[in-house]
Specification:
Layout lengths: L4 E4 L4 E4 L12 H7 L31 H4 L10 H15 L6 E4 L2 E4 L3 H14 L35 H41 L11 H28 L8 H7 L6 H21 L1 H14 L5 H4 L2 H18 L6 H39 L13 E10 L4 E9 L2 E7 L7 E8 L18 E4 L4 E4 L1
Antiparallel strand pairs: 1-2, 3-4, 5-6, 6-7, 7-8, 9-10
Helix pairs in contact: 5-6, 5-9, 5-11, 6-8, 7-12, 8-9, 8-12, 11-12
Organism: Trichinella zimbabwensis
GO cellular component, one term: cytoplasm
GO molecular function, one term: guanyl-nucleotide exchange factor activity
Length: about 475
Amino acid sequence: MVSGVAYVDSSEFFLMRSAIPPPVPPKPLHLVEKYRHLRNSPLRAVRPAPAPPIFGDRKSSVQCNDKRRATLPVLVKSQSFHRWHSENALHQSSSYSSLRHSFSFGDLRLSRRSSKWKKSILKKLNENRRYNYLPGHDSYFSERSSGVYSASESSEEEDVIYQEPQQKDKLYRVAEEMCRTEWAYVNTLKALSVDFPKFIESQSLINQRLLVQPDVPNEIARHLHALRKLHLEIAERLQSRLDSWTSRPQIADILLKVGHFLKMSRMFLQQKEELATQLIQNCRQYPDFAAAVHNFEKKHFGGLLLVHQLDCVHQRICRYPLLLSTYLKYCSPNSEEYESALEAKRLLESVALEIEHGLVEGDNLRKMFHLQRRLYSDYEIIQPGRKLLKEGEVMKHSRKEIHPRFLVLFNDILLYCAPVVHGSSMLRVRNVLPLETLDMPVLPKNDATSKEFHLRNLYLSVTNG
């Protein structure tokens, strides 16, 4: 196989061997149009353009009359070849004056002496030549490339890559990701609050057993209706900014305006556990309702459980600060958008923390309501500023036997309770001990007192173990 590159000149043909591997072909045509505007930009070379090929010596020149072996499919033009060839063409042509090389190009057979055929081949090459222009590199008959070459000469600054266009492109991608996930979240809310109740209602016309109580689908729709409208507006605003990104590349101001309204999701999150429990109980109690829910899950969620989709509200609130953190990485620190995005991130982080604290307080409040229903007395547990810290059962040692007791620790008092009847869940308050009056003496460390503690104040002393 002939190892070389054929260069066609108007005066004669040369067979040249390259001292280096052939250069990587350029980008495809659809990428050429994309990078055409970078021809005069400050883009620098990722690597220098390949050196021009070197003529082989006279002894290594090869004659090849076989059409299959002599056909050369790739013709590459280097930028520095014209200058190099103009300086060496006269000198090199004299050394090849006595040679007779023949080339096979398609069905045509050429020799150096037939100028008519040479002109026809040159015309054919010019007609079939395909230019793939990239900054600093021209080539034909090629479809691939792995680099962008610079037209400038090699220097110390050629290794510097201009990053601003790439940063802007990544900034747009982060904004696009935020918009895309916002639309996906809106579609999930629509499926939960609109499609699910309509689906159960339409199926109940065929099977009346689907009308179960409590009506969980409508309860979910009632909690998510306002939330869906809010996020639909956010998604529409983000989409409008993406459509006009070239003139107004910013989205942080949208999140600044609607950030405080995201707190309304706390109302749904406080009821989410109860709604999920009711939905699971209805599915276990009514097989027809469970089959309808399963069909809805396969149609809208790809078989994923509807109960798990209720977590999307909390997940979306936590995802906003993460997306803004990525957005800030590619935002210019000197721009106004950077300051707006930083402020929006702080706002959404505070909203997420407030919702998290609200969930903890809501769970605490539910436990206090549950304890209030268990008390067989008129004592009011729920007071402003009071928080439940710990509750549990302990065993009181007396002279004759062991008695169960129930301790409830708040941030201001300790309730010392006892069962109304042995084995009952109802409690009677025996003592209310303010924490500032309690004294816990230090017990000696041994096996007998490892699981005991003493409570003591001016009016009462209790030993439990």
